[in-house]
Amino acid sequence: MISETPKQKPRFRLQPVAVLNSQRLRRSLMDTYNQKSFYKYIIGIILLLLSIGSLFYTDKLVEELEQREEREVQLYAEGMRYVFNSPFDENFNVVFQVIQDAVNFYQIPVIYVNENNIPNPNKNIQFPANAGPAERERVIQDKLADMKLEHPPIPVDLGRGRTGNIYYSNSFLLTQLRYYPFLQLSVMLLIGYLAYLAFSSARKAEQNRVWVGLAKETAHQLGTPLSSLMAWVEYFRSDASIDPSIAEEIEKDVIRLEMITTRFSNIGSVPTLKDEPVTEIVTNFISYLEKRVSSKVKFSVFNELADEQTALLNKNLFEWVIENVCKNAVDAMGGIGEINVTLQAPPNTKEIWIDIADTGKGMSKANMNKIFNPGFSTKKRGWGLGLTLAKRIIENYHSGKLFVKSSEIGKGTTFRISLNANIIE
């Protein structure tokens, strides 16, 4: 009798639902962020193209108007030549008046200088009110000096070897058009800047709603299992057959979960800030965290602050920031390496610096610019929100700064937290 070998059930590699959900959320956040950045660049490119097109078009108009004004002045010079060289019995007054009207219409400032270098007459020169002969002469000389630098003179043949010159400058309309493109470009840049601020403000408001909703929903969902776990702790304690250490360990985890719930519930609310000793909080929390990460990670704290140095902090949220940055460092080192925390107060400032340096793989400049973007992560697991929330906690709630101080591929990364220090008297 041949016995059949039982068939082995096929093994499927199932991915936890939590991991799938975190990856979907991370992709959704990154897609939203990248889409909004794309629209921002499109708006910027459109404004740039409009500005360049407007500059070229206006410059063309200025060039054409300048050529037209030059032709009008040349025609004015030609009219003067006819007047000076025509017989006395010929009347050119009507034609010359038409030429002068054209010059006056465009308001082209014109000064005629005769063969004796005497400026007279002039057109469209603005004199001060109630100006006397000496004042008018000074104004004409000043205008003439400017005109000589602006355009070459147009000669007028007076006959018998005599030559006069007509000097002119651009009309007020042409001057306006010449500077108009720069004014227009400034206005467009201002509009673009205001649009960018409005866009960024709307994006941050939308992100804040996402963070607040996600955090509060997480805190709400944790409430029910926490109550159940506390009941189980009491049950284990009441049962003599169960090792009491089991209930103690479970209670520690429950307390930890309660702290996490409190942190999430505080997101979106104005946290209470208290005058806290910075050194004590950082040192104690690093000691707490050191026991809960890989034993191959060595923590070191270098304190240069005075023991009495304090800052306005929300202890619960601030410890969350330290935890997020340190856990990011542990992941970057693959669970093996060193984390050095340095506390210092730079001279002549009212700041406290907390530098958290790791000996991990470091990051590129491109990743340095994206490390705080929501949903960005170099890990397969995780939501990519830890550093984003940490930055918001420091900057929005504590009026400080969180940024990448330095990073080098293969050597590690240093994050810096900057806080406002309370003055020690």
From TrEMBL:
It comes from Dyadobacter chenwenxiniae. Its EC number is 2.7.13.3. Coiled coil: none annotated. PANTHER family: C4-DICARBOXYLATE TRANSPORT SENSOR PROTEIN DCTB, SENSOR HISTIDINE KINASE. InterPro entries: HATPase_C_sf, HATPase_dom, His_kinase_dom, Sig_transdc_His_kin-like_C. Residues 217-423 form the Histidine kinase domain. This is histidine kinase. Keywords: ATP-binding, Kinase, Membrane, Nucleotide-binding, Transferase, Transmembrane, Transmembrane helix, Two-component regulatory system. GO terms for biological process: phosphorelay signal transduction system.
